[in-house]
Amino acid sequence: MANGDGMARLKAAAKARPQGDPREAHEAASKVAEWTTPARLVSARPAPLDPACLPKVFANWATELATALEVDQSMTVLAALATISMGLLAKAKIVLRSEPDDSGKPWTQPPNLYCAPVAHPSERKTPVYEAAIEPLLAREEKLLKTHAEDLELRTEEVKTAEARQGELRRRLSKADDAAERSKLKVELDLASLEVVAARKRVPKDVKLLISDVHPQTLARFLADVGGACGVATDEGDGPFSLLKKSDDGDEGAHFGVWLTGYDGSWGRTKRKDVMFSGSPNLAAQVFCQEQVLRSLGRGPAAHGLGFTARWLYGCCERMAGRRTNATGLMKKSTQAAFNDAVTRLLEIPVLPHSEALLYLDDDAQALFDSYRDEVEKLQDESTPMGAVAASSQWLGKQAGRVGRIALCLHAASRAFEERPLIGRVSAETMKAAIALGRATTEHAAYAFGVMSSSTTTDSAVAVLKWLASHPTKVTQPATASASFMVRDLLAGTHRQFKEGRADLDPVLRVLVDFSWLKLDQPGLRLESTQVFRVNPALWTNPELYRADGLPTQASANKAGATGTQHLVKQALPNSAYVLTPSGPERACEECQTAPALADGTRCEPCQQVANEEVRQ
């Protein structure tokens, strides 16, 4: 009993200690001072693309659609650019340098753009995709009605010519007289020419879009439609799935059509029974998930062929979980104006032998030349993007890509004029194109950072996320004294670290090197009971290790919460915390209603019951 009375007196003395005891304040301050800001494990997500860079009709559409669906504006801006590009395929080129190069030709670029909005699951990609292709599908349906009648007439002409050819062949095989045979041969040659001419008069397929991205299917489709089409899909991986097949040795994953379709240059593609010869022109709108980029970037084929260097990336912020669903719908007039503008671009006739050429005015040329020098400097090996081969390849195509954007913006701004593809590209248009070019460079840097992330870094992020989402496994979470035991971490992540400490140790070393963790007992031999202390930045600065929209300290304070534990309560609504007059505190594991003692996992009443049971 004496020992019990002594413990009771010690507890009473501890409770009697003033709340603002200077010893406790000094101890807490010293622990906080031990920690430095840890290294960032994920790239900072870039700012959304600005719809104001687009012509008014398209800017209104991108802004209102993003507001109505509560999605990142980068998604709608890239969707608008891709749709404009599809409306201009094989119709125009922009001259970026009038002086001929070594080949004796000026430097030109087609309007072909490959756009890839990158977003997490459940980010409403499909509604944006459907709104963007709506005018293309409407135009396709209208063309099919007139196409059917012409196709039937021209097909009958081919049948008649082929019947005439067959009849002459039969008569020639039965003729015995030399003069008659000579006459029939001449008639057969003329009939054969008529068959060829009749077949050429058969109109090509009028389909404007395809969602199947396999090169063999794409080559066949291009041959059917005359060499120009748009590729649109919201299936998440689209053409990027071909990169994985190429790495695995799949012979079918051939990128010839994709590479020449981007450049708009002449080429001949033969895949099994399909032959396409000509100048294919492709524009693409592919919505994909960030995990797709993470998986494809580790394969050599992706960057070796320059496939990933041809895309405009828009890395969208995660909005799921923060949407209000009270913004209403986009105005019907906005979608109608968008549809009308795209239809006007689609109605521009294709010249039979060459595209229209658009030139820059003097001020626009000066702006472009300056931007080209700017991009050239970014490719230096001393810069972050220039030091990585894949992103350096992307920068090598960025100047020409900005020229393509300028061409699209110029035509889109004149969509309602009688002749959209005349006049010189102005300085204002070039400024808008360069602004989009600089913004997409930041998005590309983020995308290539995702592609190049190592398995160890991904595992380190997974460990931090596990610690943040399991506060009951962390002693004194969200404080400078937070710590955890390795065996608890292994038990919770055994599926990821199947080899135990052999897999986990490299990850722990990275986290220690990056100042996220500290080994609390370096000399301990029993590795399973090793204790690591956790940097409180795990709770106060989650943006340093996750880019999925977890609320930061600033957003928590804005919502009316104060202190790191309030942040944990907001970020982890199902965590074991209870509200007290002084703020949220860790809940007792027994009753789940009262706050636990600072040195334990139970509240005072539950701890007394447990002690009594032990004594009995």
Features:
3-stranded mixed sheet; 616 residues; elongated; 5-stranded parallel sheet
Which strands sit side by side, in order, in the main sheet? 4-5-8-3-9
User: How would a crystallographer describe the biggest sheet?
Assistant: 5 strands, parallel
N-to-C span: 14 Å
Kindly estimate the percentage of residues that lie in beta strands according to DSSP.
Answer: 5-15%
Oligomer: single chain
Number of alpha- plus pi-helical segments: 23
What integer is the average pLDDT?
Answer: 78
Shape: elongated
Radius of gyration using CA atoms only: 33 Å
Structural class: alpha/beta
**What's the helical proportion of residues?**
40-55%
Low-confidence stretches: 13-30, 246-253, 549-584
The counted number of beta strands is 15
Question: Would you kindly provide a written description of the structure presented here, covering whatever features stand out?
Answer:
- With 616 residues, the chain is an alpha/beta fold.
- It has helices at 2-16, 22-34, 56-69, 73-87, 125-174, 178-201, 215-225, 241-247, 256-263, 290-296, 300-304, 332-346, 362-378, 389-396, 398-413, 427-451, 455-469, 486-492, 501-513, 537-540, 553-558, 564-571, 604-615; strands at 92-97, 107-109, 114-118, 209-210, 228-236, 267-271, 274-278, 281-288, 311-315, 356-359, 483-485, 517-519, 531-534, 577-580, 583-586.
- Strands 4-5-8-3-9 form a 5-stranded parallel beta sheet, sandwiched between helices. It has a 3-stranded mixed beta sheet with strand order 2-1-10, with helices on one face.
- Helix 3 (56-69) packs across helix 4 and helix 4 (73-87) runs parallel beside helix 5.
- The two termini are 14 Å apart.
- 36% of the residues are buried.
- Residues 13-30, 246-253 and 549-584 have low confidence and may be disordered.
